[in-house]
Design brief:
The chain has helices at 36-53, 68-76, 86-94, 104-117, 129-162, 164-169, 175-181, 187-203, 210-226, 234-268, 272-276, 283-293, 302-308, 332-344, 349-360, 365-386, and strands at 2-8, 13-20, 26-33, 55-60, 80-83, 122-123, 314-318, 321-325. It is of the alpha/beta class.
Length: 398
């Protein structure tokens, strides 16, 4: 006996269906507003069902975000909470009669059925304050980086449309170039300023080598002398370039502040020092791993962690045909963390030796780095499980 509950999560309200696992009787089927009073009533109702019908298990299709409040209240009440992915819900619904019709009650029922029949659903554990803090900071950093990339691409497009020669010599990710573009953009402006004024203006950005400043000023002047034609819309485009250059500079300052906040948060996280001891795992990648993976207890084995990251090969079998192929699913962010950290670790002798061995086996560069990333999943999982930092063990004597 027991109760399987499915909650279809939404922004303003959730739909809840509870099923008696012994006879499939529908016990609850109603809308619950996403507010504390209504959710308290739901928790009390579910606890009463557990007393009457036995073990209670609840599944939700969203982790974090709009599901934050309901998940926190269920976990605080000690209710067993699991995650049923949206893909699993859609596939299961499509296999039913009338599955092409989607509704909140139907999806809640599908989630309840998944909870009832499956025992491989990943549990949702309570989020600690430091985990939540890192997750929020990482999410904000991703937004800022995405916006910064968009700004840089837009600046390059505008500059190439009116002054392609200057676009080829500046780098909008560097302080010197942003200082230049904050004031001098068009060929006429640069020619009128002259070398001395350009050098003085760029140097006022501070902490720049004189040689770098003078080289940039000379290249900008050479490009300006090579173009004596004014393009239509040049004045407006130049003003936009200056505006975007200022935005990029401001965003760089905010990113630096955010990185400092992440560093401070990682110093307080119990797993951060262990993770960062693995070569290639810097502060940003460590924070992203913590934000995406959460507690290592969610992954009893390294194989499960690799599968979650899309790094474990997938078995394909039909009749007599049986083969393994690269996974096309999994957490893309988690996979990127392992791939980038593996690439960054190639300067470490142990990682370089493994990579070289794979290249000798006729693997491509990408395949060799993927293989290294998969090996590092095993290492990182063992480090976190055994609470031991990374260490290079000397080779055994023959």
């Amino acid at each position: 006996m027991g109760v399987a509950v499915g909650i279809d999560v939404a922004k303003e309200f959730h739909w809840v269906r509870a099923i008696d696992t012994s006879d499939s009787r529908l016990l609850v089927d109603r809308r619950v507003d996403n507010e504390p009073v209504a959710l308290h009533e739901l928790v009390a109702e579910l606890q009463a069902l557990a007393v009457k019908h036995g073990q209670l298990r609840v599944g939700i299709d969203v982790v974090g975000g709009i599901a934050g409040l309901v998940a926190a209240m269920l976990l605080e009440a000690g209710i067993d909470l699991v995650h049923v992915s949206g893909l699993a819900v859609n596939r299961a619904r499509q296999g039913m009669v009338g599955g092409e019709h989607k509704s909140d009650p139907k999806d809640a029922g599908v989630i309840a059925d998944q909870v009832r029949h499956r025992r491989d659903l990943r549990p949702i554990d309570p989020v600690t304050e430091i985990d939540a803090e890192i997750r929020l900071l990482v999410g904000r950093r991703r937004e800022l980086v995405a916006d910064q990339t968009r700004r840089i691409n837009r600046l390059r497009d505008l500059l190439a449309s009116i002054f392609p020669g200057l676009e080829r010599v500046v780098d909008p990710t560097q302080k010197a170039s942003l200082r230049l573009l904050g004031r001098y953009v068009t060929p006429t402006e640069i020619r009128r300023a002259g070398r001395r004024r350009l050098v003085d203006h760029i140097a006022r950005a501070g902490h720049l080598s004189r040689k770098h400043v003078e080289t940039l000023a000379d290249q900008a002047l050479d490009a300006a002398r090579a173009q004596d034609v004014a393009v239509a819309g040049e004045r407006v485009a130049a003003d936009l370039v200056r505006e975007i250059a200022d935005e990029i500079t401001t965003a760089k300052t905010r990113l630096a502040s955010l990185d400092a906040d992440l560093e401070a948060a990682l110093e307080r996280h119990p797993d951060a020092a262990l993770i960062r001891s693995l070569p290639g795992m810097g502060a940003t990648l460590t924070a992203e791993f913590i934000a995406e993976a959460g507690s290592i207890d969610r992954f009893p084995t390294a194989d499960q962690l690799a599968a979650a990251a899309g790094l474990a090969p997938v078995l394909k079998q039909s009749g007599k045909v049986r083969y393994l192929q690269r996974a096309s699913t999994g957490n893309k962010t988690l996979k990127r963390v392992f791939f980038q950290s593996a690439f960054c670790s190639l300067q470490h002798p142990t990682s370089r030796a493994f990579y070289t061995r794979k290249r000798a086996e006729r693997k491509t560069h990408h395949q060799a780095v993927i293989a290294l990333a998969r090996r590092r999943v095993d290492v990182l999982h063992a480090m976190l499980r055994n609470r031991q930092p990374y260490e290079v063990r000397p080779a055994k004597a023959a």
